[in-house]
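All the exercises in this workshop are built on plain-text protein records. An example says more than a description, so a record of this kind follows:
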Amino acid sequence: MNTFHIIINTSLLKSGHWNSRQSRNFGDGRIPEVEVPFSNGRNLSLSTGRYARFADGSAVGELGDTSVMVTAVSKTKPSSSGFVPLTVDYRQKAAAAGRIPTNFLRRELGPSEKEILTSRLIDRSLRPLFPDGYNYETQIMCNLLAVDGVNDPDIISINAASAALTLSDIPWNGPVGAVRIGLIDNEIVINPTRKELSQSGLNLVVSATRHNLIVMLEAAADNVLQQDFLKGIKAGVKECQNVIQSIQQLQKHYGKAKREFEPISSPNPEITDAVKSLSEMRLREIFRDRTHDKLSRDLAVSAVRTDVIDKLKQSFSEGMDVNAITESFNQICKQTFRSLIFEDNIRCDGRSMEDLRNINCQVDLYKPLHGSSLFQRGQTQVFCTVALDSPESAMKMDSITMLTSGLKEKNFFLHYEFPPYATKEIGRMGPAGRRELGHGALAEKGLRPVVPSDFPFTIRLTSEVLESNGSSSMATICGGSLALMDAGVPISTPAAGVAIGLVSRYEGTDTKHMEDYRLLTDILGIEDYMGDMDFKLAGTKKRHYCTSS
């Protein structure tokens, strides 16, 4: 298995230009606005100060005749969650296209699959840049004001959300910029229109921040070669710098001073040193024990955590904060896990950096099914089925999704399920959540290019994750290929997926100068949690890419 490391070093472009409507006077009827210049001449407009002025930050993005308003609001009191409590809500209004909803009530109801997937896209572009310890509930709301059916609102939404957070007083280490990259006749196209995208072999979204650092990638590709894919990433990061510099100009004149905040449960050095002395060597033994599997390793770490807390309760009986001890333990656990990868060049399960876990495959499991497969990679197991039906069973798109994507119906779709027992947990089962919709859409992107477009049946592919220790969406692509072939669907070539992780070292907090790194092939769940990247990639035997995230 070949892996590669992307190093992008492009020069910064000139700053965006203020257009004629800019003004420092909010009361003179003109709008504080910047134009973001792209190399194709289709400029993005970002403005503030007109709408939703009670929000902590507000911005409007406009490309062509598509406009999105984004607001950012964050509470002033911290929550008790152990992660950034960020919520991103993107909503498509039928009124934005001059349409009336087609449901019985004639009004917008719950979020559609397209809205949820776009919300996740925006979330992944913003979440990594919140400062460590910022546990204040934050909500980003993206409101589609107008849509022209030519320019997709998702890229506009990411950039407007970046502007809203940058202009607000919410602590955030942005801005980010985002562009869509197409590939037509082997030529890169920046922010392609809907018509251009239908002719493109690549649909790549790149989000990047300053110093040409990539934050998020998402792509669908029709068997694109590796060198063309890398060329698209490099062009996207370069164009993102225009967005970043334009937002910084807007912030310089109209941005609020960032508020001060206290990281929740910030442990004092005395507690940190005590936790380290009680746990570091024991954690090293656990992470070097190659006999552990997911459950036994988690139980061993949990036992050390409980023991450390109990001992420190006795030593720090007065004013002892259990949350602070737990947070300190989690930090030391992460540092220890990452350090061992550099020291030993061996991962916690005994694999080298490039090794895949053991793979086992079965097909034709149950005769009543049109196609079925069981794919096992390490402790990740998925059961896939294929059902074939008439063209009338195709999935119909809602009116706004039809307008923005040009797709009226889908005759191939994938449904992904992740029940709680897959990770030895208890939970309620119900409609697919955001995570399940996102992972299912990602796997569907990886398989759609190999399914014939003229196949005379509707195909429903399902994937149920029975066991999970990382990379279940990529296992779905592998199992899905098997199930499609078992059902007799004439796919052009089998596709497979794998998740690549990254563990890196920097000089302090200076992310511009990487001291060392390790790329991890086929990551475990713990390597995803402790690492810096979860890069999912699907392709064919000839190094043709089908999807990435």
